[in-house]
What we know:
The complex is a heterodimer of chains A (188) and B (159). By secondary structure, chain A is of the alpha+beta class.
Amino acid sequence: MRFRTWESVKQELCVICGNLKDEPRIITVGGTALLYHRLKKSTRDLDFVFTTQGECYWFAEALSAQGFEVRKSANAWRFIDFKRNLYIDISYGTVGDVTLTQSMFARLIEEQINGFSIWIVSLTDLFIMKACHSVTTSETDAIGDALRIVEQVDMDKVEEELEYQSEIVREKVGRFREEFCRNKRNLT
Amino acid sequence: MASDIDLDNEISVTSKQIILMLTSCDKDYIIDIPTIFINNADQIDFDELINTAFEAGLGYSLLALIDVAYKLEHNDAFQKVLSRQYPPNIEGNVIQDDIFPVHKFRHFIKRSFLERIEDRWNVRIAFTFDDFYKVYRDYHLLPVHGEGLKKYFGDIIEI
Lengths: 188, 159
């Protein structure tokens, strides 16, 4: 299953939220957030991150109640609806190397779905996440996403956020900019 | 063009849709193609598809992507198509994303693990095996071979 519009993501979330017994801060990241920002035509899975383990647990319980099966990876849990070929990846605290910070929270964009708040990560922060992922994995898919975002972001804001991130994140974003953004000018 | 591509129901994927995806120069379409072949190998008329692709000047690009599908998962339908004789690709085709085109890809990515396929069809591919594998893993390996994966790896999976 592929999600091609933000509306279709909202519809899915609407069902999940109906099974929530508590009110976690649902933060949308990855391809799902890029779909919201209209920088991606489709996403194959839904990616959510939670500030705390408890909030992640509430969301996981709602997915399990809906019949999703869970599998674990190194840094995230994948909830699978095998009938619909639907994947929802959830984690808490970090997105790869990138930590959720207060400054990042201040930039979150709010969407309301049936009384629930869904928070979408800003392009500034998505760029940092995708740039780190690109440098870590060299996936051209991630590189392409980061290059699409970089055109839209204010690098001063990226620099500000990097002040709150770890040395590893600063180094990876620096490497991405050094390699891909500098050469973007040279190679085109 | 995007509105012409409806892959929500991949069973009904048409030759025209595949060609549109191939010409999109958009990674979000292109890297899906081999897995669509794998998932729909029984339904796709590869003769018709290849004819349509050659008419559009994309025959070798399509063959290269069928070869990627074959590398991901062996299937007689792919082997049959790939083992036919085709005239040499004199011009050379390119499969790439507009944002990260082949010259940039070559500059940054040292090894794609698709070199044999590139040489065989004279098609330059600005994606790695891993890019295609990621889609295959999510849309074929896990749903179709999920129990087998579980046998060896338990509940730990790649994401």
